[in-house]
Amino acid sequence: MALWRAYQRALAAHPWKVQVLTAAHPRRCPDNTCVPCIGSLMGLGDIISQQLVERRGLQEHQRGRTLTMMSLGCGFVGPVVGGWYKVLDRFIPGTTKVDALKKMILDQDYPDALITNYYLWPAVQLANFYLVPLHYRLAVVQCVAVIWNSYLSWKAHRL
Length: 159
Known about the structure:
single chain, 159 residues, mainly alpha
């Protein structure tokens, strides 16, 4: 609970920074450039995929692949998806069931991946937009994204 309260305080004080760091890594470099590190949740998804799903072992672990996933978390998920949630909230203010449904429908804007992600993301996003305050939405998505990224990494790299 102490960790959760610390996260809430940091989020209230610095919402954009916390959302970017939650999606990417636990620290910022001195020159304000993002350097993906092992704390990246997308990297964690790839590590889970390689070690638990694919059972590669440490000797066969593809570090470049993990770094690629971490870079996506740093350069895309944090700034772009966090910003997207703000746009959705401005475009469709409110948290009623109808508002959440509208946001979820607008969020499903990737036709090629739509069929695959229908099993997970619409339910997650419906609950996220209906139950979760705006400043916690990215954190919720990142927690689910660890599982999703494990799946995507496995699917993209299976032999």
